[in-house]
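Suppose a colleague, Dr. K., hands you the sequence of a protein chain of 183 amino acids and asks what its three-dimensional shape might be. Before reaching for any lab equipment, you can write down a predicted structure in token form. Begin with the sequence itself:
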Amino acid sequence: MKLGSKCIGALLLAAVAVAGCNVVGTGLTRLPPRAAPSGAWTDEEGRPLALSSFRGAPLVMSAFFTSCTMRCHMTVEKLKAVDRAYAASGVAVSIVVLALDPKNDTPSRLARFKRDHGLSDHWHFLWGSMNDTRKLAKALSVNAAYDDGHIDHDVEIAVFDAYGRLARSYGGWAFDPSDAVVH
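The predicted structure, expressed as tokens, is then:
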């Protein structure tokens, strides 16, 4: 398992007001809490969305932008495979994808992407200001470089348990989707 320089779990834990995080398989059992980046988040329907609203069930998080021609579509496909693994295990999950291009990926464009790709109601696209987006991306260990309409970024998929603790963190797509299932 990969754990970036930032504790992804601590981000979510701070958002849901739980101190510390347990990280499976890293030898780290408790990390100090970090303050979650402030920000006003909106979902693809234009409704306010708080990360704390996902407490109580596993959560899978990643980042993308809709005009990406390769990496992001591969990430969405991997997230679909993880979603299928959760469904096969009978465990409910929420999947949250941070929009890295808030200027172009407006809530209506994200809603269209969700609809066009047949994504379920438990998929949520997180939209916010560019400043808030950069802060959250950094906290998720997604380093993004913005250049002439393209965004070069890391592929990170984080899995949190029902208590908001980081359970798995994957840099890329080379993992078995069933390994991402946590209870």
